From TrEMBL:
Protein name, UniProt field: Heme exporter protein B
Subcellular location, record wording: Cell inner membrane
GO BP term, example: cytochrome complex assembly
The family this protein is said to belong to: Belongs to the CcmB/CycW/HelB family.
Membrane topology type: Multi-pass membrane protein
Origin species: Methylovulum psychrotolerans
Amino acid sequence: MSLTAAFFAIIRRDLILALRRRSEIANPLFFFVLVITLFPLGVGARPQLLQAIAPGIIWVSALLAAMLSLDSLFRSDFDDGSLEQLLLSPHPVSVLILGKVFAHWLVTGLPLLLIAPLLAVFLGMPNQALGVLLLTLLLGTPVLSLIGAIGVALTVGLRRGGMILSLLVLPLYVPVLIFASNAVTMAATGLPVVAQLNILAAMLLLALTLAPWPTAAALKMSVS
């Protein structure tokens, strides 16, 4: 099997497994929707305030939803032994891991991207900011998955690694949160957002290039 065929086979396998365990798809999405819909109840029916903080609400909710789904990235493979087979593959492990991360994003990040405009309208976000919101989510959520994969790889062998995983990845998520929410806020006020989008694109390229290597090394240490 060629490397390209193996890459797409990993994606297909993980998508099939995710469809069999639909709760892994539903839980982060329900969490994302629940947090955003409950927030107006906490701050009150104040349209101007909700409109001002809508970018932060959406991005913090997306970040927490991404963290909620991280543990499923390698856990089932570690439990059933298929992770060892992945590491013994003749193909580069980093490329196969990239396929798993992409499948994970399709299952968890893409649904957030699709539902976010509806929730943004619910919070009163201006129409001119919706396109920038989608673009920041498109650039930022894959970065969250790629960075999170490193943390999951380091903690996959631990029984209760959830708290350690949060401590590892949350500080690395902060730059994405800052630039993405700031881009949406500036777009809502009509200011240019090219700089923020370029930084997010650079983060994505760096994560795509660098993240698979430490993830593969961490998985080998966790399995051995």
